[in-house]
Amino acid sequence: MKVIAILASPRGNRSFTKTLAESAMKGATEAGADAGLIDITKKKINYCKACDTCYKLGRCVQKDDFNEVYERFLAADGIILASPVYFNSVSAQLKTFIDRTADCRHCLLLEGKYGMSVTTTASSGAERTVDYMNEYLVNSGAFVVGSAHTAMPYMPKNMETASEKAYELGKDMVEAYRTKRQYPEQAAVQKAFIDRFCYVVKANKDTWTAEHDHYLKKGWFK
Ligand SMILES: Cc1cc2nc3c(=O)[nH]c(=O)nc-3n(C[C@H](O)[C@H](O)[C@H](O)COP(=O)(O)O)c2cc1C
After folding, report:
1. Which residue puts its alpha carbon closest to atom 23 of ligand 1?
2. How many domains does the chain have?
3. DSSP state of 46
4. Residue 84 C-alpha to ligand 1 middle, in angstroms?
5. How far away, in angstroms, is 136 Cα from ligand 1 center?
6. Pocket around ligand 1: residues whose beta carbon is below 6 Å from it?
7. Per the domain annotation, does 30 fall within a domain?
8. How far, in Å, CA of 161 to CA of 209, rounded?
9. Residues 211/212/216/222 CA torsion (nearest 10 deg)
10. Which end of the chain is flanked by fewer CB atoms within 10 Å, N or C?
11. Strand pairing report for 2-7 and 34-39
């Protein structure tokens, strides 16, 4: 099993969120996975231009580091999203990456993968930030095993507790993948989206050719 952590804190090795991501990776590795980390704050990832070309071609045509990161993201079986809380949400770097994956969300390209999220915050917004990341993963087709977070990470006890949780979730993500664990509530959200969105894809069949082909192949049209 391949696991990738997407780190979106610009603080490098001083990042508390990175520490949680590394704990999750340690858990995953000890459970038998091959885990790697991409610090997307060190990558050149432009804003989405909303050109819709990925809907047509199945890939982004911008020339920057996005495609290389996206390829590794899509090749993973397990995904750890790791962003600090910035103004009660994810950092701009993670949001910018997420916006570039619109075709992934439309086609639920994370189907069959498992995911989890980690965050740290001075005081506010941790719950809603992991909820945001986990919602993105589920909406894009993955099953989410949980999240680990803490406020006041400079207090060692807080980081210790959150790191232990991240470690256990990393292990559990591997177990979930191995046993193909099902999450009926998450699957229902995904199915409801497909049942709705297939009409949008059909309406755009002449221009969204890659997405139309995907829905056809999956048998998602009604
Ligand atoms: C731009 C910016 C926005 C932030 N917004 C919040 C916030 O809304 N609430 C909060 O409690 N802390 C906020 N913080 C503090 C960080 O969430 C906190 O320091 C976090 O642990 C940093 O994680 P890192 O060490 O992984 O970068 C903010 C920090 C920055 C730089």
Report:
1. 84
2. 1
3. P
4. 6
5. 20
6. 9, 11, 15-18, 84-88, 120-125, 153
7. yes
8. 48
9. 110
10. C
11. parallel
Residue 168 lies in a domain: yes
Is 222 among the domain residues?
A: no
Atom of ligand 1 nearest to the CA of 17: 26
Q: What is the pLDDT of residue 53?
A: 97
State how far the Cα of 75 lies from the Cα of 146, in Å rounded to an integer.
Answer: 21
For residue 205, what are the contacts with CB-CB under 8 A and spacing of at least 6?
212
Q: Write down the pLDDT at residue 143.
A: 99
Of 22, 23, 121, which is best to mutate to test ligand 1, by the most ligand atoms within 8 angstroms of its C-beta? 121
- For ligand 1, atom 8, name the residue with the nearest CA: 87
Give the whole-angstrom CA distance, residue 110 versus residue 75: 9
CA–CA dist 197, 206 (Å, integer): 16
| Token output for 158 | 């807080």
Q: What is the pTM of this model?
A: 0.98
Full residue range of the structural domain in which residue 66 is found: 2-180
Residues in the chain: 222
Residues of the chain below pLDDT 70? none
Q: Is residue 72 part of a domain?
A: yes
Residue with tokens 């990558």: 43
Close Cβ partners of 139 (under 8 Å, ≥ 6 residues apart): 105, 108, 189, 190, 193
Best residue among 17, 85, 154 to mutate for probing ligand 1's pocket (most ligand atoms within 8 Å of CB) is 85
Tokens of 65: 């580091």
